[in-house]
């Protein structure tokens, strides 16, 4: 049986499920919330009655989110809908906001640890790949970041070489200001189309309040904003040079990073000049820049290879928690807590997660 027919059978099966209830007033945006499932709130179908029939018919229930995250852990989405264009994304998000439906926007699922109990409300799987190639490029936030590098470079536009090995979508990259090799996506942003309390509107990059692996959308108090599309300043340049640079980065990742399912670096690196000075074994360039890699701290505390249930801290990289095959979100969290505890005990530093916990914990 092909993957397509398996998927169709699964969808047919899930449609038979009892119509679920959607329980919360607050949207869920990338962080742990206590989200009870109740019965006195509108169902997904009722609440989405204002969106087109074509979209409504695509809603699935109890969709297993482990299939949509790179860590391959987590329970089901109460309701799940894939959108493919800016129009569809806007329509669904505005409908959820109007109806007080809790919603969560899922990109490539490469920066998430979804709870074993799953995510209540509607998970909107963003596959908005709208693209207008130009200067600037305008791209839907559901487009893959690495895919955009390939497409833009084939048009002779460069600037995204650093991003070639970063999985996930443009939207997820913007939320965490994704980057590598001392570059990140923030400086490329010219403007964004967003949905917030004022509806659909255009804003400048300052609205994002970008920081190191951070933006306003990661912080508490976020009220369910959605990034619909973005204009990126990519510039005409040397196509062969860009491809060669990207290949170098890819090779580097293949040697450095574990291959087992993960969500990439679990903790943020620590920017602390004092701490960097205190660690004699730290490479000189990092000491001078005052950067202490979280993986270095984890390794120094003997965390590499540590196992909890079906997950482990990779023996290859102290900042990667990997799924050995049967891992659960609880295993991931237990490992993360233990790494944080040991690093705090030995270095007095509280590591901060780069990975976002999502759903009911
Ligand atoms: C092997 C591996 C290597 C990695 N290497 C790197 C690296 O080098 N550098 C780096 O920075 N990261 C890295 N990552 C982490 C991850 O790939 C990035 O953070 C990525 O940008 C996340 O994108 P995503 O689409 O998967 O987001 P998701 O994980 O799907 O979502 C992340 C958050 O963004 C929110 N979100 C997503 N789209 C939108 C939107 N349109 N509007 C509003 N909110 C939205 C989600 O709700 C969620 O809160 C790596 C991950 C893996 C698995």
Structure description:
The protein contains eleven helices and 21 strands. The strands form seven sheets. It has a five-stranded antiparallel beta sheet with strand order 6-7-13-11-12. A four-stranded mixed beta sheet has the order 1-2-5-3. A four-stranded antiparallel beta sheet has the order 15-20-19-18. A hairpin with a 4-residue loop joins strand 6 and strand 7. The longest helix has 19 residues. The N terminus is likely disordered. Bound molecules: flavin-adenine dinucleotide. The site of flavin-adenine dinucleotide (FAD) has 35 residues, from strand 3, helix 6, strand 9, strand 13 and strand 15.
Sheet of most strands? 5 strands, antiparallel
**Can you tell me the CATH architecture of the largest domain?**
2-Layer Sandwich
The total count of strands amounts to 21
Helical residues, percent: 25-40%
> In percent terms, what proportion of residues is strand?
15-25%
Summed up, the helix count is: 11
Tell me the domain tally. Answer: 3
Please give the alpha-carbon distance between the first and last residues.
35 Å
The general outline is: globular
CATH class of the largest domain: Alpha Beta
Strand order of the largest sheet: 6-7-13-11-12
Q: Residue-averaged pLDDT, rounded?
A: 87
Q: Compute the gyration radius: what is it?
A: 21 Å
Q: Determine the CATH superfamily of the largest domain.
A: Uridine Diphospho-n-acetylenolpyruvylglucosamine Reductase, domain 2
Instruction: Write out the distinct hetero groups bound to the structure.
Output: flavin-adenine dinucleotide
**Which regions contain 5 or more consecutive residues with pLDDT less than 50?**
1-41
- What structural category characterises the helix and strand content? alpha+beta
CATH topological fold name of the largest domain = Uridine Diphospho-n-acetylenolpyruvylglucosamine Reductase, domain 2
């Amino acid at each position: 049986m092909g993957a397509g027919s398996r998927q169709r059978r699964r969808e047919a099966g899930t449609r038979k499920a009892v119509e679920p209830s959607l329980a919360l007033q607050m949207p869920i945006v990338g962080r742990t919330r206590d989200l009870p499932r109740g019965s006195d709130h509108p169902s997904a179908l009722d609440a989405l009655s204002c969106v087109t029939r074509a979209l409504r018919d695509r809603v699935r229930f109890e969709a297993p989110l482990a299939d949509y995250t790179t860590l391959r852990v987590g329970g089901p989405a109460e309701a799940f809908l894939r959108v493919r264009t800016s129009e569809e994304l806007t329509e669904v998000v505005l409908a959820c906001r109007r109806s007080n439906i809790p919603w969560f926007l899922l990109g490539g699922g490469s920066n998430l640890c979804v709870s074993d109990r799953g995510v209540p409300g509607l998970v909107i799987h963003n596959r908005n790949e709208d693209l207008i190639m130009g200067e600037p490029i305008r791209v839907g936030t559901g487009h893959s970041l690495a895919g955009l590098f390939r497409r833009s470079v084939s048009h002779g536009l460069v600037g995204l070489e650093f991003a070639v090995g970063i999985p996930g979508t443009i939207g997820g990259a913007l939320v965490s200001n994704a980057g590598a090799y001392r570059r990140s996506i923030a400086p490329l942003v010219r403007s964004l189309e967003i949905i917030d309390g004022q509806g659909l509107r255009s804003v400048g990059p300052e609205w994002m309040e970008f920081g190191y692996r951070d933006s306003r959308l990661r912080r508490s108090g976020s009220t369910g904003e959605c990034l619909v599309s973005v204009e990126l300043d990519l510039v005409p340049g040397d196509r062969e040079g860009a491809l060669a640079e990207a290949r170098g980065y890819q090779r580097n990742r293949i040697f450095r990073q574990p291959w087992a399912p993960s969500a990439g670096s679990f903790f943020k690196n620590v920017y602390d000049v004092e701490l960097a000075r205190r660690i004699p074994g730290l490479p000189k360039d990092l000491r001078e820049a005052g950067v202490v890699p979280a993986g270095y701290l984890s390794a120094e505390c003997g965390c590499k290879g540590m196992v909890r249930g079906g997950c482990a801290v990779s023996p290859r990289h102290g900042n990667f928690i990997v799924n050995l095959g049967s891992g659960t979100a609880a295993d991931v969290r237990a490992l993360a807590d233990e790494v944080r505890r040991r690093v705090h005990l030995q270095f007095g530093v509280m590591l901060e997660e780069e990975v976002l916990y999502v759903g009911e914990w």
